[in-house]
Amino acid sequence: MTTVRLPLFPLSTVLFPGLVLPLNVFEERYRAMMRELLKTPEDEPRRFAVVAIRDGHEVAPSAPGLPDPTAVPARGPAAGFGADPLHAFHKVACVADAATIRERADGTFEVLATGTTRVRLLSVDSSGPYLTAEAEPLAEEPGDEAGTLAEGVLRSFRQYQKRLAGARERSLTTGADLPDEPGVVSYLVAAAMMLDTPTKQRLLQAPDTASRLRDELRLLRTETALIRNLPSLPAADLTRGPTSQN
């Protein structure tokens, strides 16, 4: 089994292959990671793995608070993730390639990364200045009828967009720019839908593209019907998420 060792960046969100991720890096453990990545030659990928947090906090507490105002906050690369960080994370992560890493005058970083491939976490090492993971690359299998399913998902997604735009009383501007390659469709729709983290994680770790598309088709039909019945449902932009606090 071929494995890779990667710096690990836990977040309270799911990154998908092909999607762009802006990061505002201010915690020391992740600043150390970015300083190390900057040592990589510019013509080589600056890779790290983004994993969704299952049980823990994206930002480690930096001061005492409730319920114990005298407790000393945990520090170090695994702060906020318990004694065994592997159990705090979902098992399937997305490799990110940092195209831009810009250090600010105060030592924080502005990072723009793009998801590339999926990996399965096998172990997490907290002995260094930041977490690293031993990971197994996951193949991208098309599955049965991926092309036909992608066409159906695109039709349903356009209806979903229209319903969501109508509920928010704004114009629809993204429908003409959708791709048609099944794998790309599956990840774009997974990222764009208004879903909770466990559901997005389920889509990320689907065994193949066709399985992901089938799941998305069910979700799109359900969500579109929900929006139709609840026209005041709040939502964020379809193709852009908030910058992570980290």
From TrEMBL:
Domain Lon N-terminal span(s) in chain numbering: 6-224
Membrane-spanning parts: 6-26
UniProt xrefs under PROSITE patterns: LON_N
Keywords: Membrane, Transmembrane, Transmembrane helix
Name the record gives this protein: LON peptidase substrate-binding domain-containing protein
Organism in which the protein naturally occurs: Streptomyces pimonensis
